[in-house]
Amino acid sequence: MTVNLAVVGLGAFGHKHLDAISQIADAKIQYVAHSKMDVAQEVGAKYGAKAAFTDYAELLAQEDLDGVILATPTHMHHEQTLQALRAGKHVMVEIPMADSLAGVQEIVDVQQETGLIAMAGHTRRFNPSHQYVRKLITAGEFNIQQMDVQTYFFRRTNSNALGQPRSWSDHLLWHHAAHTVDLFQYQTGEKVVQANAVQGPKNPDLGIAMDMSIQLRTENGKICTLSLSFNNDGPLGSFFRYIGDSGTYLARYDDLFTGKEEQIDVSKVAVSMNGIELQDREFVAAITEGREPNSSVAQVLPCYIVLDALQKQLDY
Fold first, then answer.
1. Domain Gfo/Idh/MocA-like oxidoreductase N-terminal: where (predicted)?
2. pLDDT category, 316, cuts 50, 70, 90?
3. In the chain, which ranges are E strands?
4. 20 to 30 A Cα–Cα from 272, which one of 18, 25, 182, 284?
């Protein structure tokens, strides 16, 4: 079975998904969609798509389309996910799948009503570095005591991961913190029962906080400290320190190191060293096998419950 996919939104992450799908034997880039037709046609031709669209509803009406990958601006995720499910298409949506708990809950409800595959792009679950740590945890060889996480970027203007201008503003809590909040609960296997957040001044042009600090505690006392910034003029990205009862591990995207900066070979953890590709492989496999995927919208709902609580704290 070949799964025919469309990538919607052709910015930095749209291209990452297109590159990933190109490596998956039982997946095909059938269509692409973007707000500008010249961009859609150029990218579609590069990746061998059958056609390019600017009209999302027209795309969803294609009978030979099995599923969509949404790499569009955050404020479009919720409605586009619902549209895809109601059109009978499987969907993987980049995070956050909505910017409110009510929106996320609606997606979960509609997925359950339709029975289709709906998956959120919580890529950290799939990075080989984090998979390696998870295997230790499930084998009973490592127990997390604390996660210390830094998520740092330098984004004082609206720009994407390639430095290109964009029309929408990113968000430290609903986008970047979502990766860590989900990963912390996933790796510990426990729910967060205490969550605190403080934020720095809002950028007058972007209207968002540029610095944030978050503390989390699970029901059995495991803790997570997360520092986030769009003001950091230095090494960029998210860096995870796992402190446990039998060791310390540093995860930098798909790479893993001991607490003493000794690199660990994670090349045999999965069929690829690319977390985005592994995430897309899970989406395709769930469709072909008719099963719930890792990072399904229902599985990641607890993350958004925590984000909602943190948002209320910050608003108060």
1. 4-122
2. confident
3. 3-8, 27-33, 51-53, 67-70, 90-93, 118-120, 144-152, 192-199, 211-218, 223-229, 237-244, 248-252, 255-258, 263-264
4. 182
